[in-house]
Structures are given as structure tokens and as C-alpha cells.
Amino acid sequence: MNERTTITIPLAEVRSTMKARTALQGTLKGSARGTPKGRQVDPQARADIAALLGASKFGVEIRRDLLIEYLHLIQDKFGALSAAHINALAEAMKLAQAEVYEVATFYHHFDVLKEGEEMPAALTVRVCDTLSCAMAGAHELLDRLPAMLGKDVRVLAVPCIGRCSDAPAVCVGQNAFGDGTVESIIHAVKVKQISGVPGIYASLAAYRAEFGYQTYQDVVCGKRDADATIKEMEDSGLRGLGGAGFSTGRKWRIVRTGAAPRLLVVNIDEGEPGTFKDRYYLERDPHRFLEGMLIAAYLVGIDAIYIYLRDEYHHCRAILETELAVLKADPPGGKMLPHIELRRGAGAYICGEESAMIESIEGKRGMPRLRPPYVAQVGLFDRPTLEHNFETLFWVRDILEKGAAWFSSHGMNGRKGLRSFSVSGRVNNPGVKLAPAGITVNQLIKQFCGGMREGHRFYAYLPGGASGGILPASMGDIPLDFDTLQPYGCFIGSAGIVILSEQDKARDAALNLMKFFEHESCGQCTPCRVGTEKAVQLLAEKKWKTSLLEELSQVMVDASICGLGQAAPNPIRCVIKHFAHEIS
User: Fold this and answer.
1) Structure confidence at residue 284 (pLDDT)
2) CB atoms within 10 A of CB 21
3) What is the pTM of this model?
């Protein structure tokens, strides 16, 4: 066996070698590269970003949570997000380029260009192809429009844009309108009518003329006791009208006990196919919502409010920007309002989920958080957060003025309260229908929608938007409310009712909805990301593999992180159970 040989090197020689190596490294560093590693920032792009951020309505301070707002500024100005501008924005925000890129590419409304890629057409026409619009001829529009509009206009099929009652819905630039035809779209393009105009709504002056903000002033001035007011909300039975159905008054009490500062987040990211009630009320009476919001904020002890509005509601954003500015300049009773920010979504259905929306407000990808902790405890910016849907706050003033008994006195079939049903599909008079909770779909069609359209017979319905399931007409006498539909594998959600006739097929509806879920999955968890994709493939087959679909559905329900993956199988299971003749 060889013995180990020890070599002794004089200390002076070691030091000399290290000194020479350090000198050599310094020489290499100075001569080989005069700039940092990585993609360099274009000087013109740097100047563009500096000008845009300087003109931001949020002030001169560059904030990490405003990343999505900054991306909107760039796209609104230049028509797309170039690599050069993304790099310059990352430099300005002191973020990694990859961090900015991953956020920009997460949201559907951002056009992110690769190196050397050409700009998209100057004008984009978006045609909704989700269920109600597909039933109304959206695919025919998508087939005809590209050739008729030419290469200077880009035509895209997009998910629901919140105008299901006026299907097919179209967006030319940022101007969304319903009842789209080839002729109306060509006209909008020709006259460059690309920016929606706010509709007729009650201004601050008109709202105050009808005793608007008087209830808010009574609360702030102590004429209404805080605890008694919260109890009034509890007694009314008002529940979250975005779909979750949690008691409004109870939620106020929970968040109120959290440590200050406490925050309020308002969800107007109304992306559930078949739902458009929030837009309907916002277009007509924005201050009724704003007063409810301020009452909730005062009673809960809120320090700052963030309103998250879906990007498809461009004209509603103009309304809120105008009326918030007027309200801040002339606050009710001269009392200073809490800090209020209006944030702009970027086309992601998943951001309707409360924790995904919070991630988006923080300037990140809209991916749902794991629970616990819950949003009421650790929410926006890790603070206790009160999260509400628009319509929930819309009813606060009326309930407090007319009393809890007034609200709960409405109802049918043993249920209590009022519901705003978004009705679309094969009825004579679609739209938002304010009706008693517990009304059946048969009663809703007959009493509020003028019956079925001529030549159509009631065949099936969606009681709760895309994720609420599909039921046959023979089950049209089930009360529509929270907790009444669960025994049938469905739920009411945000009360988006889509009516199908014998000219439609439930299996086609399920496939359309699953394509929507596949498109909108955030991709965070495998059961939802892969499950929706595989489900689309299976649903497209002539004969459904029901056992395999059920196995896939159960995995999605059991293992998905949030409600998107958990509820996506509902239409599949309903079709297998109630419309077996269509799939065998």
C-alpha cells in the first residue's frame, strides 16, 4: 500500500500566488465586460418608462403592488408589451426581468411580444364565444369577421365579457356592446368607436337629492349605534352575493376584531359566464354601492379600500373614476374618507376568487392561496381584510333604511330575501331580474322573462353560471337560493341563469363550459390544470367514457386548490346523470 505523501508549500509562496490570482481576476473583470450580465436596457425604452411612471395617477413613488397598473400604462400607450419595455420596467422597479415577464404573461389582456416579434394589429375585435354567446351565433361572427375586416384588424375569440343577456357580445377596442352583428361591428371599426362611453347613471348630486349618504352620515355621527347596525345586517339575512354566501354582518364582526390596520377589498371581477348583475347596477346607481362600501368601512374600522374592477368593464371604470373624484372632493358631512384605490384587472377569471384577487392587487399572478390562514385574518398585504362582492354592498343602504325585516320579508317557497338573477339564453326578455329568493326557474321564466322565445321549448337550465351545474326542465320547480340546489349536484353561486331550449344540447353546453375552465385555469395545481384539459378531450368524443370522466371529476374535486377545479366537473356530472341519452 502506498503511503500518503505530504507536500509542504512555504506560506510566502501561497500569499504570492493568491495576490497574483486576485490581480488577474481584477484585470479580467475590468477588460472583458463593461456592462452587467443579462439583457441590456434600451435607452429609449428607459425614457418611455420614466415618462409613463411619472404620469401615473398613483403618484411618483414606484410601488411593487402597482406592477399590473404599470403594465396597463405601457400597453395603453404602445399597443403591446415589448421586451424592451418589460426590461426597462423591471429596472425601474428593481425587479428581475423574469418576475415582470411572468406576471405580464399570466393575464390574457396583455400582448407580450417576444424579441423581434411584430406588433399586433392596431385594433382588436374580441367576440365572446362562451355559452350564451355561442348559442346566439358567436362562432358565425368569428368565421366571417377576419375576411371582412382585413389584416389591419385582429379578431379574437374570448371568454365571457359580462353581456350575456345581449348575446353575442363584442368588444371593439375597449368598447363593449351586445347584440353584435357583422354590420354593427364593421360600423364600430369604421367610425373608430373603440372606447366605451359611460351610460346614464345617477350622479352624486342626483343621488344626494334622494337622501343619498344620509345613512352613512348617521353612522359616522353616532346617530346609529355601531353594534346595533351590524346586528341589523345580521338579522336581515344578507349573504355574500358573489357566490360564497357568507353572512355579511357576521363577516363584519370577524374582521372588526382583527388588529389594525384593516383593509377592505371590493370584488367587481365579475367573470362567471352567465353573470352580469354587478355591471348592470354599476351602470345605473354607482353611489348606492359606494355608500354601502363606506358604511362597511366605517363600522369595521377600515383604513384603506381597494376596488378591483374587471378590465372588460372599461366604461364602468370611467364612471367610478369620475364619481370617486367628485366624492373625494366633496365627502359626505365633510368627513375625510379612507384611502381608496381603483384597481384594474387584466383578464383572468380566477381573480374572482378572493385570494387570487388579493394576489393580483399586490401586483402578482392571480393564483389562489392555500388556507388557512383566511383572508379575514391574513389578507391583502398580510393585513386583516374584509372582502365583499359589489352587489352585497349595493344592498346595505336599503337594508339599514328600510330595516332587516323589510329585506327578509321577501321570498318564496320558504326562502327569505331578494336575489338579482342574471338571465340569458332562450327567453323573450333576458336581463337582470330582481326577484324573491326561492323563486323557481319556471316562475322566473314566466313571471319575469316573458316566457320562452317563439319556436323554443324549455329544455334545460344552468342555475348558477358555468360552475353551477345543468338541470333538465323537468326539475324546474326547485327553489333558487343558497343551499337548495346542493342536493342535486348544483349551486346558485352568483345567480347566473342560462336557459336552454330543445334546439340546444346539454352535452355541447358542458363542452363549451369546460373549454372555458381549461382556458381560465391558473395552472397552479395539477388536478385543475391537467384535469380540465383532459376533460375537454373526453367531452369532445361522440360517446362519453362516463367511468373515466367520473374518476377524473372526483380527483379534481378532491385535490384542486380552489373552487375553479372543484366546481368545474359539475356540468359533466349533471349531463351524465340527467341527459344520458345525449352521450351514449
Assistant:
1) 95
2) 10
3) 0.92
